[in-house]
Amino acid sequence: MAREKLSAVHVRQSPAGKYGDGGGLWLLKSGKDTGSWMLRVAVHGRLRHMGLGSIADVSLAEARVSAAKWRAVARDGRDPVQERERQRRDAARNLHLLEDVARDAFEARKAGLRGDGKAGRWYGPLENHVLPKLGKTPVADIDQILIRDTLRPIWKAKASTAEKAIQRLAIVMKHAAALGYAVDLQACAKAQALLGAQGHEVQNIPSLPWAEVPAFYASLNDGSATHLAIRFLILTGLRSAPVRLARLDHIEGDVLTVPADLMKGQKGKASDFRVPLSAETLEVIEEAKRQSRNGLLFASPRGLALSDMTLSRLMQRREMEARPHGFRSSLRVFLAEKGCPRDIGEMILAHSVMGKVEASYMRSDLLDIRRGWMDRWARFVTTGKDDAQADVPTTGQLIQMQAGAR
Predict the structure, then answer these.
(1) pTM higher than 0.70, yes or no?
(2) Which of 33, 71, 215, 222 is most buried, judged by most C-beta within 10 A?
(3) Which residues does UniProt assign to the signal peptide (predicted)?
(4) What does 220-266 look like in DSSP terms, one character per residue?
């Protein structure tokens, strides 16, 4: 190695320029008080230039030690630049960064999420509001202060999103603990205490009063896939996804069978959800079949499923506050006011009202009972009049039918 030429005084006082210390170590001064270290080595006949840090952070002695280390790597035939990057990656893996643990936690849970979590609703709050700030932080270093500072900007402005983000983060921390990492399982709860009350009220999705539904239904008369899909949504009481993704092979006679993975909260459960189809609903289906594509009952001009926004925009363009999902509320209030038993009303909307033990004995989905109420709803929606003598069961008949189902 060439004789060392620099001294600590030279490093401090030399003006801007390039100064060699021997053995490929160079001092690059950009000004009297600023500069950096650079190592030049040959690897398999190819020159490589490697930064060793600023003179403000790395002394001459430290630079010489570092240069000697990386020259030894080059003598072994390895590229010191690539080797340093590999070591950095290994070190990051050993730190168990939050972004890596979060991804692993999501992979462990996604089989239980609708559509395997591809829509991003579970991972989205983390990806958008937590990981950009804390993703590169080791999980062992995550505390309530970091969480508080990360979520404070949205804690009240986007209360619902912030609440989901901190709930998902708590799940990730539990996952890290299960992996054997040293984490504070109370960090999220402590952060919530520091953030305080959100001061928001849950906002229900706007809906039309049930008495106004017939007039709106009648206005959906252009025969387009969008109009027909909203009609179908109103008549069946389904959420948007089962309607937009309904397929021709989901329909058999006067029954629609919705696969469990299209039903909110049904992923991984044993049974699909059967929907009785009224005469009006069957007419909507027949009209939709004439323009169905790729097996989809309601398809866009490109043959794809309609988007959720497509349905919402129709109501927005009409300057309505109500949204498609709100028709489930319209139907539920109608059923309640017309005397539909609570359990049947909830079953029509695919809400779970039974505990595990009760559900194990209730082995019927009461399709025929639900059909009577859905027929009554369809007659009201299409005529604006309610047939009070509709063939729907009384509470006594309901009890008898439930007993027979056990």
Answers:
(1) no
(2) 71
(3) none
(4) --S--HHHHHHHHHHHH---HHHHHT-BGGGEETTEEEE-GGGSTT-
Q: Could you tell me if residue 181 is inside a domain?
A: yes
pLDDT in tens, 174-184: 999 999 898 99
What does R_g of the chain's alpha carbons equal in angstroms?
33
Q: Longest Cα pair distance anywhere in the chain, in angstroms?
A: 107
Shared domain for 188 and 297, answered yes or no, is no
φ, ψ for residue 184 (rounded to 5)? -95, 105
DSSP 117: G
Q: Do 185 and 248 lie in a common domain?
A: no
Provide the residue type at 303 as one letter.
G
Q: Determine contact, residues 235/378, Cβ cutoff 8 Å.
A: yes
Q: How far apart are CA 173 and CA 188, in angstroms?
A: 9
Indicate if 235 and 348 belong to the same structural domain.
yes
Sequence-distant (6+) residues with CB within 8 A of 32 are 13, 14, 15, 16
Q: For residue 2, is it within any domain?
A: no
Residue 26 sits in a domain whose CATH number is 3.30.160.390
Phi and psi dihedrals of 149, rounded to 5?
-65, -30
Residue 243 exposure: Cα atoms within 13 Å on the Cβ side: 29
Residue 201 Cα to chain centre, angstroms? 22
CA atoms of 182 and 168, how far apart (whole Å): 18
Give the pair of three-digit tokens for residue 107: 């992979």
Q: Which amino acid is at 43?
A: V
Asked if residue 125 and residue 88 are part of one domain, the reply reads: no
Q: What was the pLDDT predicted at 119?
A: 56
Measured in degrees and rounded to the nearest 5, phi and psi for residue 389 equal -95, 20
My answer on whether 126 and 254 are in the same domain is no
Whether residue 141 sits in one domain with residue 43: no
d(CA 117, CA 35): 50
Q: What is the pLDDT of residues 163-203, one digit of tens each?
A: 999 999 999 999 999 998 989 999 999 999 999 987 655 55
Please check whether residues 292 and 327 belong to one and the same domain. Answer: yes
| Residue 95 pLDDT | 73
Q: Is residue 266 part of a domain?
A: yes
Describe the strand order of the beta sheet including 251-252 as a list of residue ranges.
Answer: 251-252, 255-258, 273-276
Q: What was the pLDDT predicted at 155? A: 93
Domain at 361, CATH number: 1.10.443.10
